[in-house]
Each structure stands twice: as C-alpha cells, then as structure tokens.
UniProtKB/TrEMBL annotation:
GO terms for cellular component: membrane. Pfam families: ICMT. The chain crosses the membrane at residues 42-62, 69-95, 121-154. This is Isoprenylcysteine carboxyl methyltransferase. The keyword Transmembrane helix applies. Signal peptide: none annotated.
C-alpha cells in the first residue's frame, strides 16, 4: 500500500511537472528562446518511463519488504522533494525538462543555484537511488543510477555549452571559480 501511494505521488508529480514545463516552454519561446539537445530528449523520457516500469515490475515480481532503513530513506525522500520544489520555484519560467535557452538572459543566482550548478539533476539522481532502495529494489537502483549518469554525461555538457554561448554563464562561472559557492545555472 505504501509503495502504491508513494509511486502514485511521484508519477502525478512528474505529470504536473511536464504540464508546467510545457507552459514554461511556450512562454520562453515567445520571448525568443530556443531548444537545444532535442535529439537526446526522447531517450531521457524513455529512461524515466523505464525507471518507473522497472521499479513496478521488480516490486510486483519479487515483493520485497520495506527497507530496514525505510524511515530514514523516506525522510531523505521528503527533503529531496523540498529541494525539487525549491529548484522549480527558484528558476520560475526558466525551469523546464527540456533545455530551453533564452539568448542574453542572466543565469539564476538564487535558491539552490547559489550552492550547486545543477541542483535539479542532483534531485533526480537522488530519487533514482532512493525510491528503489526504500523498497529493496536493488536492480532498479543500480541499473537506473548508471543509466541516469550516462544520460547526464550527455545532457549537462550540451546544456552548459548552450548557456555559455547565449547567456552570461561563462562570466558568472569564471567569477565564481575561486569561490566555494558556484551559481551559474539558468535552467
């Protein structure tokens, strides 16, 4: 029962995020923004859909018990959700599941973007590990953590290159190199 509730919450959350992302994409493109990295986006969607399918299959077939550390993992999950909301709220209309670039924009310097270059990717990475571990679904945790890292190895360089070319990303990045705080992220 708890698995179904948590899974339903996360899936509904993702669907709402896709709706918000679509609205943000329309707003940004009306301001002159453009998309980069279109070729990898369908693979990213496939990765996330496959993650949920794998988690469901692993839980249904193997019927694992809750992790002995479930309470701690659940608290970490809730903190991760708070970080997710902070990321989305901080970026506002710049937040998207796609890489949408607004030429001439200043990178966001508030919220978690004061501390991390890509906090939303950190959130997703933590969730991909946490959700399966909460239900002792180790295959899904390991497999999709590795696949997610491979996806981010493609996505982040594309995003950073586009931000460097079209925004003040490079200037902000160079300014922060000597600082322990890095905040150079538009989306």
């Amino acid at each position: 029962m708890i698995f179904t509730l948590i899974l339903a919450f996360v899936i509904v959350q993702r669907l709402v995020e896709l709706y918000v992302a679509r609205g943000n994409e329309i707003k940004m493109k009306a301001l002159g923004a453009y998309e980069v990295g279109e070729s990898h986006y369908p693979y990213m969607i496939a990765l996330h859909v496959s993650f949920f399918l794998s988690l469901i299959v692993e839980v249904v077939i193997f019927r694992p018990m809750l992790s002995p550390f479930f309470s701690w993992l659940f608290i970490l999950f809730l903190l991760t959700q708070a970080l997710r909301i902070w990321c989305l709220a901080s970026l506002g209309q710049f937040w998207n599941t796609k890489i949408i670039i607004l030429p001439g924009a200043n990178v966001i310097k508030r919220g978690p973007y004061v501390f991390f270059r890509h906090p939303n990717y950190v959130v997703v990475s933590i969730e991909i590990i946490l959700l399966p571990l909460m239900f002792q679904s180790y295959f899904t945790a390991i497999c999709f953590t590795l696949l997610n890292f491979a996806m981010l190895a493609v996505r982040i360089p594309i995003e950073e290159k586009a931000l460097m070319e079209a925004t003040n990303y490079s200037k902000e990045f160079k300014k922060k190199l000597s600082s322990p705080i890095v905040n150079d992220h538009q989306q």
